[in-house]
Amino acid sequence: MTTENNGDFSLNDNQNIKVQTVNPGQVINIECDKMTIKTSRVNEDKPLLTGTTTLYNQNGNNFLSPSFKTSPNSSGVSDTIGKNGDVGESTLDYNPLLNRQLENPTSNFDTMVHLLKGNIGTGILAMPDAFRNSGWVVGLICTILLGAICTHCMHILVRCSHELCVRTQSPSLSFPNVAEMAFEYGPPKLRKYSSTASKFINTFLVITQLGFCCVYFLFVATNLQEVISHYFFYMSVQWYLVILLVPMIFLNCVKSLKYLTPASFLATVLTVIGLGITFFYLLQGLPKTSSVKAFSSWHQLPLYFGTAVYAFEGIGMVLPLENNMKNPEAFNGMTGVLNTGMVIVTCLYTSIGFFGYLRYGDAVKLGSITLNLPSQDLLAQSVRAAMAFAIFLSYSLQFYVPIGIVWPALKGYFHSQSTQHYAELSIRVFLVTLTFALAAAIPNLSAVISLVGSFSSSALALIFPPIIELMTFWDQCSGKEFVLMFIKDIVIVIIGFLGFGFGSYVSLWNIIEPISR
Questions:
Q1: Which residues have CB under 8 Å from 308's CB, separation 6+?
Q2: Which of 466, 478, 484, 473 is nearest to 164 (CA)?
Q3: How many distinct structural domains can be found in the chain?
Q4: Which CATH number covers residue 453?
Q5: Alpha-helical regions (H) of 169-296
Q6: Would the pLDDT of 257 be above 90?
Q7: Which GO molecular function, any one, fits this protein according to its record (predicted)?
Q8: The domain containing residue 149 runs over which residues?
């Protein structure tokens, strides 16, 4: 159907519907001989007035519940409604990618650097430990499969974001906004949970990213301890955490993602060098695959899942990176930034996991393969130092997400600009100190990685995106297309819930059991 400010809706059965002039905040009432369109929840804040419509036939039966939109300031919205209530594709002229106003947009190269650095962190160095918990055959298959699923879920999130940006005429949406709008446009009985969905995403994002920051703290401290204790003197990990606290606070006072690019680029270079030298050690004197297990045990498999999902969980960075791009259309596509980056990430994870486990077997150190490198070699010690510095610089990139959620929620309590400035700095200091305290309380790198991956990363990477897709496109797919999408999404959600439950339980047990001795 097509409408202007004051015009006709044309149905395929040649019936015409007259619509009154629509003013901001006004509820739209449209009537015709055979159906009534009722709208509610008109949004006064957006230039595009959005209402939820329900179409009724002569018998009063609901046979169509699309989202109706019209704008008094635009050239109109076009939809096609058939005799049976079938809705065609919306033909809005609004393009969210062309309406973004960015202070410091990132280039394709900047985005690729951030994407790689956001994914290639402590998780990749824990992959040999993951393979130890799965076995080399299961590890190879599951890592490639999990990489493909996680990448697909990232594409789901971006696709739903673009669709909902068009519907709401918003230039960009965050992960929580996408979840909220998806439920807002979802099945009528679920729309009341839209704000709850947003809060869930925000909570898990903050938990996940701060969990990453705890792991980063521990990783840097543990590797520095290995280097310094070999050449100089021994100190406990907690003392290294204390030493790292002040420089970590200063680094995380940088507010713009654009200004983090040099640090991120340097961290990426150091990571590449460190991984290159690590591979040099791993590929020397490799034994036969028969020397290690093809499958470990069912009891250890949840630990593999937690570590692997932790490694792949970069979905929290996807929308911030895409929303901040100068050319966001280059993010998707077969050879886009996302696919290119995730193929590189998956290949690296699989390779270092397989060769690390094959080289050291069950003697793989928990949490990081760098701890297995020979302590007497200066080159090996340089890898530990380089990776520690790279992860130190990467902390700020992981911190960018939670501060972007927490600070806007608190900003309204501070009115003057100077007060807001100091309040934001105080919150940044508090959150960095919080991650320091948690890392000092549980100095078990492997267990923390697996717990963060199982509990929060699996929810963000595998559970929420398929649910968002079902909510977004529930009324826009044909019968067969919807069934296939439904089956695919439910399978991914089940995988996520299994990993969430079993992985969290086993990880918590591995943390609590040593303490209770």
A1: 127, 130, 142, 143, 146, 349, 453
A2: 473
A3: 2
A4: 1.20.1740.10
A5: 175-184, 194-231, 237-251, 261-282
A6: no
A7: L-amino acid transmembrane transporter activity
A8: 98-516
